[in-house]
Each structure stands twice: as structure tokens, then as C-alpha cells.
Design brief:
It is a single chain. By secondary structure, the protein is mainly α. Helix content is about 75%, strand content about 0%.
């Protein structure tokens, strides 16, 4: 009995030279297996790749490792494509900025060259943002603000400062706050009080973050400067109680600092003036007591006397007394400044 391959099944069942046996005593599954094996031979390596052979003493290759390599290639390609796209966006931003420079340096017989340049710079800023080049983007938006100010378009200039602040906040909270402060001042000039209040709060947040960063690095002077700018923002919003608290906070931090303690009197004076703006005699007296607690020597200073005289004149409703107190303090302050300047000049002469 033979199959299509010319192999006798009796020979397949003959083991160890024994005489051929009938087919039926053999297990059916074995007969089928041997028969199928010779009809459909095992494919060669050329037809079908063999499975990886485990190396002695080594581990078998992980299942799906080739798939991971195939997946890694598209990811690298996407990264390269993304980087190439960012480079293209920056190049397009450069082109628009150059066109804006040409527009500003040339003559404009039709239309307004500042408006045209602002439009070109706005396109450049968008491409710089797509390229995530925030420094180039914030510089462009500041230029846009300058162009709008040339055309007396204060609302558009304020909006450009807001965009500059959004770029600055990526790497410099202090500069972001300054840009927002410029926007706030412009919104106040055109009577957009709601917009001014909104962006003032944002500026205060950025300044507070900058103050914390300076404070963590031990730069107390810079931290106090940021806090003072926050207080000035609240002064624009006429939130004098918050402004007073901030100035008092600066004074407390400075009183035990050998380099900053000499500025405490001026800071406490600002805190007292904030309370005078509220027009509440009780609040003014309470503020003077807190100032005395912060600096026990404050009661013997000209600043304390000025606040005391101003509070008394406001309580009495005496405008002339209020004016005289301010004039006296102003004359004494200028005299002190002149004496200090003269002493500095004498010291310089001694050194030479």
C-alpha cells in the first residue's frame, strides 16, 4: 500500500526490521500522523522561518520584542517630524518679523504702516508660539504693543501686553507681572475697570510667585520689591486694607535684617498712608500702634509725627493743618537728602 509520495505505509509501520504488520493493529492516530507527515513534508527554512533557538545559559527572546522595535521606529519618526515642524514654524515666524521690519522702515502712502506691521508681527508671534519659542514670542508681542501705541490704540496695546505676559509666565513670573501691569495701566486709562481688576489679580499672582522664589533663594531685597509691587497693584484697585497688610509684612521681614532695617521707616509710612486713604480715624490709630509694635523706635521719627499730624487734621477736618504738615515733612526730607548727598560727595573727595 503506497501513498501519493510513493512511500509504503507498511514500511512506515515496520520497526527495527520486524515483519510488516497489518495496518489495523496500529493506533489510528499514529497512522494518520505518519501518513500526513509524508504527504505534507515539514517546510524548509526558505519557506517558513524557524522559531528562535534558546541559547545555552541565556534567556529566550521576549515574545513581541520585534514588534516593540517596529513600534519604536514610528515614534522616532514622529519626534523628528515634530522637531522639523517646530523648526519650520520658527522660520516662518522669522519671515513675518522681517516683513514687519521692512514695513516699519519704509514709507506708507496708503494705510497705516504701524497697523500693517502689527498684523505681520501677530502672525510671527503665532508661529513662535507653535515653535514653543516663548522668548521670541514675548518680544514680538511687546513690539505689537508699541505699534498700537503709535496709533493710539490703547485697547489693542493692552491686549498685546496680555499676550506677552502669557509667554513670559512660561519662564519668568516677574516679567509676566510687569507685562500685565502695563496692560492694567492702559485699561485704567481707557476706563476698562473690569479688565484692569481681572489682570491685576493675575499680576499679583505672578508677583507673589516671584517673591516666593526670591525668598527661597535668600534674596530678601528682591522678594520685598515684588511684594511692594503687589501692594501698588492693590492701591490702584483702591484695596487699601490689603495694601496696608502687605507693607506691614515687608516691615516685619526687614526689621531684623541689617541691610534692610533702615528702610522700615519709609515702609511703615506707606502703610500708614494707606490707612489715611480709608479715612477711618480708628483704623489710622490702630495702624500707628502696629507700626510701633514692629519698630519700637518708630514713634520718635519724622514719619510717625507726619502720620500723627495728618490723622489729627483729618479728624478735625482742618485742611490747612493737613497741608502744613505735608509741607513741613517735605522740606525736612529734601534737606535730609541734600545733606546725605553732600556727605557722599565729601567722602568721594576724601577717597580721591
Amino acid at each position: 500500500m503506497t501513498n501519493n509520495c510513493g512511500v509504503q505505509l507498511d514500511q512506515l509501520l515496520h520497526i527495527g526490521g520486524a515483519s510488516p504488520s497489518p495496518v489495523y493493529p496500529v493506533e489510528p492516530n499514529r497512522v494518520v500522523t505518519l501518513w500526513a507527515h509524508h504527504i505534507w513534508p515539514v517546510p524548509t527554512t526558505r519557506e517558513s522561518p524557524s522559531l528562535p533557538t534558546p541559547q545555552p545559559g541565556g534567556s529566550e527572546p521576549a515574545i513581541g520584542s520585534s514588534t516593540r522595535h517596529r513600534d519604536a521606529a514610528p515614534e522616532e519618526q514622529r519626534e523628528r517630524a515634530r522637531a522639523r515642524g517646530m523648526g519650520d514654524n520658527e522660520a516662518r515666524g522669522d519671515d513675518f518679523e522681517k516683513k514687519a521690519d521692512q514695513k516699519l522702515s519704509g514709507w506708507s502712502f496708503f494705510g497705516n504702516k504701524y497697523e500693517d506691521a502689527a498684523d505681520l508681527l501677530d502672525k510671527a508671534g503665532n508661529f513662535f508660539k507653535l515653535a514653543k519659542n516663548w522668548r521670541r514670542a514675548d518680544a514680538v508681542y511687546k513690539r505689537i504693543a508699541d505699534c498700537h501705541l503709535q496709533g493710539d490704540s490703547k485697547h489693542e496695546a493692552a491686549s498685546a501686553y496680555v499676550e506677552a505676559a502669557n509667554c513670559y509666565k512660561k519662564f519668568s513670573p516677574q516679567d509676566a507681572a510687569q507685562a500685565l501691569n502695563n496692560a492694567v495701566n492702559l485699561f485704567l486709562e481707557i476706563g476698562r475697570l473690569n479688565m484692569a481688576a481681572r489682570y491685576s489679580k493675575n499680576a499679583a499672582v505672578y508677583l507673589s510667585r516671584a517673591a516666593d522664589l526670591f525668598d527661597s533663594e535668600g534674596q530678601s531685597s528682591q522678594a520685598n520689591s515684588m511684594t511692594q509691587k503687589i501692594a501698588e497693584i492693590y492701591a490702584q484697585l483702591e484695596k487699601h486694607q490689603k495694601e496696608t497688610e502687605l507693607f506691614e509684612e515687608i516691615a516685619r521681614k526687614s526689621i531684623n535684617n541689617n541691610l534692610l532695617k533702615y528702610s522700615v521707616r519709609g515702609i511703615l509710612l506707606k502703610a500708614g498712608i494707606c490707612q489715611l486713604c480709608r479715612g477711618d480715624p480708628v483704623a489710622i490709630n490702630n495702624s500707628l500702634e502696629r507700626c510701633q509694635d514692629i519698630d519700637p523706635t518708630f514713634s520718635g521719627t519724622r514719619e510717625y509725627k507726619l502720620l500723627e499730624d495728618l490723622a489729627a487734621s483729618m479728624d478735625e477736618g482742618d485742611v490747612a493743618k493737613f497741608t502744613d504738615a505735608v509741607k513741613e515733612f517735605d522740606s525736612m526730607t529734601r534737606l535730609a537728602k541734600n545733606e546725605l548727598k553732600k556727605k557722599e560727595e565729601e567722602d568721594e573727595d576724601d577717597l580721591t
